[in-house]
Design goal:
The complex is a heterotrimer. Chain B is mainly β. Chain B has 1 helix and 8 strands. A 9-stranded mixed sheet of chain C has the order 5-4-6-7-1-8-13-12-11, with helices on both faces. Chain C has a 3-stranded mixed sheet with strand order 3-2-14. Chain C has a two-stranded antiparallel ribbon with strand order 9-10. In chain C, helix 1 crosses helix 2, helix 3 crosses helix 4 and helix 6 crosses helix 7. Classes of the chains: A alpha/beta, B mainly beta, C alpha/beta.
Chain lengths: ~375, ~130, ~350
């Protein structure tokens, strides 16, 4: 078994409503950028892992493993599609990591892609509910904002978290995104803007919710030996963890805590032999602002129930003690569902190699990325370091 | 639109009457029903169990941005309800005043239409809840 | 017909109400004169997710709760309505599944305008008398549709009543039932038509009055009884006035009719009408009380029942009284009413 697995190249499309881009255009661009960044040739790639939640529903296209290999000019290589709703990207990264760690492959590409704007918003909402329980949640007229609103209500009830604190997450992430040229939204929002935006599922408002986005990202992974030969800026994956929980929110042990994230995080810290305080920055899954608060609690950056407070105190800002979502997060950078997990890896690599431009976190040496599927039925956590 | 007819039909006893299951080995009750007890696994004795329809509000939200088909119901209350017998489920709360919706409020099951499949498809009915009257 | 009667009953009336004033306002009609001539002040309106099936299930559940019987012992279910949710596919089987009945039963849907529910009661009585079933569930429920601006729009409402018929633990015995039936086109709806049509003044004397009077007289004569022998009388009540007038014609006093008169505040629940009126009486009646109930269905026919209340009715009072349903209400205006009643194009609870 190879000692370590590293990332030697990253690439991403812009995120947004990209009318001119098809599903194939998106992933081809991201993959090409990653290959260029890695300084390798396409034919050096030995296997492909692609994460996408729902091309079947968004574009009636399945079998995207073969499709992506085909359009990447890599037809013939082993290609695998993975899916875990919004954690499909993180899962693709993990599968690629395992493929190399197992000794089977030396150079692998992991990509994530979602093309969401070819259907109406109402249809997109329905497609996304596939991440929840079709028979006992979706059937009842439940949407994803509604599920996270149910969690918000409990978090507020159990810990006294306020809607102001939750809104501050959006404010911070929008600010960070103004420093990210690839982000979907590049404008500031004030607390008033957030608290007065149209109500989606009480108490969550429009500006608490990540948008519908098109986008793709890709990373090139290599075994330690190959990575050192090909790059002098390798970012090592020092931990990869995956945990699941019940598909339906109502079957969880708690509505205010994402237990799959707690378990995955604990696992990841053990693998990397570090503690939460050793993390310099994290890209976490803020599909809704409350999700970032629950994430930082689950990842051990603060006590359970304190996520709102440390956000309010500015600890999670770019210049805070634990910068969270320097990229702008899912809220402001955008959330092309299957791409997000890989996009988080891209951001982490940029931060760790000092290439994050105006949103660079100072002295970034260890980063954590956190990707969640559905209302918490899957969590994937990776720790990356120089 | 004949999609999912058998799926709904199979769930009719569950969706109309809160008929769940119980693991006789460990005593845990399940709604929605499970045929495999996560505690006892293959060692479980699973039997049918009829819930009373009584419970309380565990969490709630008011949906202002409904999915396709539910547009004219807005705003509607969705809640996670803790049944008296233990399990939690997700359902709409109807016929209740906004000020009555709060965590801990007692609710009871009612029978309502959820949605119809277009103009010519089947009508899907299921449990909803309302705040208990004094 | 000895020893057969009502073991329990249940009603359901949707919460929303619209006032006659409000409807009149929209059509530029004189609210006061309408209220006075019809003796109806407001009517019930179903929510968007309610229909005859949901109403039938609710009143059936209430009836079973009141009867304290095991639903698996129900041998027959009949639902009478003129607004079944499907034209083809029974409402009665939806009720059967929702109350936890077994598959060993017979079921069918009835239509006979507003008397379909009482026809269901008669059928259950017959099956019980034959020994074919132990308990029968008879339901009359409707979500009636009124044509905008038409006289019937002021009264067409929603609601239902369910009765468990059998031989055990009776709260009231049905001493006799008698029907008067003719082919009279007073009120009808052709297939594909959204709203019913009616014969205006023809719906009075040759229709409602002829049949109700014939059935009431027929049953009293057969049993050697006079109006004065009854403690209560309840008629089908398309408005508040008809029952009072027919009562006077037959020789009943106002006090005998008033308890069973619910239409002024909930409108005409069509197949639920007589059944809800009867339930309101049973909520109050004591042992030994004699009740005359006469339904009317356009097309046309009347089913009359002589009902004797037993001690069990005082021992086992229904907790979900008609009064509670009447008082649990929320007013809406015509715009919301039009939305809920499908009068606005494209507004439906469907994908």
């Amino acid at each position: 078994m190879p000692k370590r697995v590293g990332i030697i190249g990253v690439g991403s499309t812009k995120f947004g409503e990209l009318w001119d881009y098809s599903f194939r255009d998106l992933i081809t661009e991201a993959g090409t950028k990653a290959i260029t960044d890695a300084g390798i040739d396409g034919k050096d790639i030995e296997a492909l892992y692609i994460g996408s939640m729902s091309p079947g529903l968004f574009a009636e296209q399945e079998h995207i493993s073969a499709l992506v290999a085909d359009y990447a000019g890599l037809s013939g290589i082993p290609a695998t599609r993975v899916e875990a709703a919004c954690a499909s990207g993180g899962l693709a990264l993990r599968e690629a990591y395992i493929a190399i760690k197992s000794g089977l492959f030396d150079i692998v590409v992991a990509g994530g892609v979602e093309k969401m704007t070819d259907v109406s918003t109402e249809s997109a909402m329905i497609n996304l509910m596939g991440a929840g329980d079709q028979e006992w949640e979706a059937f009842k007229g439940v949407t994803f904002p509604a599920l996270y609103a149910l969690m918000t209500r409990r978090h507020m009830f159990e810990y006294g978290t306020t809607i102001e604190q939750i809104s501050m997450v959006s404010v911070k992430n929008h600010h960070n995104a103004t420093l990210n040229p690839n982000a979907q939204f590049q404008f500031e929002v004030s607390i008033e803007d957030v608290m007065n935006s149209p109500i989606v599922a009480d108490p969550l408002r429009l500006l608490h919710c990540s948008p519908i986005t098109d986008g793709a990202s890709a990373v090139i992974l290599a075994s330690e030996e190959k990575a050192k030969k090909l790059s002098d800026e390798v970012v090592w994956i020092s931990a990869s963890a995956l945990a699941t929980d019940t598909i339906a929110l109502h079957d969880r042990k708690s509505l205010s805590r994402i237990n799959s994230s707690v378990i995955a995080a604990r696992n990841a810290y053990e693998q990397a032999k570090i503690k939460p305080k050793d993390i310099d920055f994290a890209e976490v899954h803020d599909c809704f602002s409350i999700a970032e608060i629950m994430a930082i609690e689950a990842l051990g950056f603060c006590e359970f129930g304190n996520g709102g407070k440390i956000t309010e105190d500015g600890e999670t800002a770019l210049d805070g003690s634990i910068p969270i979502n320097p990229s702008g997060g899912l809220k402001a950078k955008g959330h092309p569902v299957g791409a997000t997990g890989i996009a988080q890896a891209v951001e982490a690599v940029l931060q760790l190699t000092g290439r994050a431009g105006r949103r660079q976190v100072d002295d970034a040496e260890i980063g954590l990325i956190h990707n969640v599927g559905g209302s918490g039925a899957t969590s994937v956590v990776h720790i990356l370091e120089r | 639109m004949a999609k999912g007819i058998a799926l709904h039909w199979r769930l009719i006893p569950r969706r109309y009457t809160l008929l769940g299951t119980e693991c006789r080995s460990c005593g845990e009750k399940f709604f929605p029903p499970r045929q495999l007890c996560p505690n006892c696994r293959r060692g479980a004795k699973i039997k049918e169990f009829k819930f009373s329809g009584n419970g309380e509000i565990y969490s709630y939200t008011i949906v202002h941005s409904p999915p396709k088909g539910f547009e004219f119901m807005k705003p509607y209350v969705l809640a996670v309800i803790k049944l008296d017998e233990g399990p939690l489920l997700t359902a709409q709360i109807v016929d209740s005043k906004p000020e009555d919706i709060e965590i801990g409020r007692k609710v009871e099951m009612v029978f309502r239409k959820v949605i119809a499949d277009g103009d010519s498809g089947i009508i899907r009915y299921a449990y909803k809840f309302r705040v208990k009257r004094e | 017909m000895k020893g057969i009667g009502i073991i329990g009953y249940g009603v359901y009336i949707p919460r929303y109400r619209i006032r006659v004033d409000e409807i009149a306002r929209v059509w530029g009609a004189n609210a006061e004169s309408i209220s006075n001539s019809l003796m109806v002040y407001e009517k019930s309106v179903p929510a968007l997710d309610e229909d005859t099936a949901t109403i039938s299930v609710e009143c059936a559940r209430n009836a079973i709760q009141h009867s304290k019987i095991n639903p698996s012992d129900i041998g027959a279910i009949y639902v009478g309505s003129e607004s079944h949710p499907y034209i083809v596919k029974p409402t009665s089987t939806i009720v059967a599944a929702a109350i936890g009945a077994t598959s060993e039963l017979t079921a069918a849907d009835y239509e006979f305008a507003c008397k379909a529910g009482t026809a269901a009661i008669q059928t259950c009585m017959g099956l019980v008398a034959l020994g074919m079933i132990r308990y029968g569930l008879a339901i009359g429920a409707d979500t009636a549709q009124g044509k905008p601006g038409d006289a019937l729009e002021y009264t067409a409402s929603a609601g239902g009543g369910a009765y468990i018929i059998g031989r055990e633990k009776l709260i009231a015995e049905i001493i006799d039932t008698y029907s008067f039936t003719t082919d009279t086109p007073d009120f009808w709806r052709r297939e594909g038509q959204e709203f019913p049509s009616h014969g205006a003044r023809f719906t009075g004397q040759p229709a409602y009055f002829r049949h109700v009077i014939s059935a009431a007289s027929g049953i009293m004569e057969r049993n050697d009884l006079k109006p004065g022998d009854f403690d209560y009388v309840v008629f089908h009540q398309p408005n508040g006035k008809f029952p009072l007038r027919v009562a006077r014609i037959l020789g009943f006093k106002r006090e005998q009719v008033m308890r069973g008169l619910v239409t002024p505040y909930i409108g005409n629940t069509y197949s639920g009408s007589t059944l809800i009126g009867l339930a309101n009486i049973l909520d109050d009646a004591v042992s030994g009380n004699l009740i005359l109930a006469v339904s009317y269905g356009s097309g046309a026919g009347s089913d009359a029942f002589i009902i004797k209340v037993k001690k069990e009715n005082e021992r086992r009072r229904n907790k979900k009284t008609v009064k509670k349903f009447m008082e649990d209400k929320e007013y809406i205006d015509y715009s919301v009413y039009a939305k809920l009643k499908g009068k606005i194009k494209g507004v439906k609870l469907q994908k």
